[in-house]
Write a structure and sequence with these properties.
single chain, about 130 residues, mainly alpha, about 70% helix
Length: about 130
């Protein structure tokens, strides 16, 4: 579970809905707060997450629930709302310890080189061609 994927879904939904822009803005605030935690100890990060970021994420969920009550079920915003509500229990686990991450971007970047290389190497017939 990654908050990045949730934000991406809401960002795409902003093309057709102004109400999701407020949610995207709150998610951006959460990511900005998260950047401040990179040099904190695990214990300090845990307390920062619980005291500063968790209330923001709960506010996001309150807005999502309100938005979900007002929108048609066949829109991109509806899909975003459903996705994030279904992932809430998993995402809230981030606040159980100081070493959990809100985003899996660093992991995705770390494996991207191997995945891209694998695709290129698969179609190579010699070491020179790879």
């Amino acid at each position: 579970m990654s908050l990045t994927h949730d934000r991406r879904k809401f960002f795409k939904a902003t093309e057709n809905s102004c109400s999701s822009q407020g949610i995207v803005d709150l998610l951006d605030e959460i990511f900005n707060l998260n950047r401040k935690t990179t040099k904190l100890s695990e214990n300090d990060r845990y307390h920062f997450l619980r005291n500063k970021m968790k209330p923001k994420l709960e506010e996001v969920y309150n807005r999502i629930i309100l938005a979900g009550e007002k929108i048609s079920s066949k829109t991109a915003l509806s899909d975003s709302v459903s996705y994030m509500i279904n992932q809430k229990a998993y995402l809230m686990n981030v606040f159980n310890a100081g070493y959990f991450e809100l985003s899996n971007n660093s992991v995705e970047r770390a494996v991207k080189e191997n995945v891209m290389g694998r695709t290129n190497w698969f179609f190579s017939y010699s070491f020179d061609g790879s």
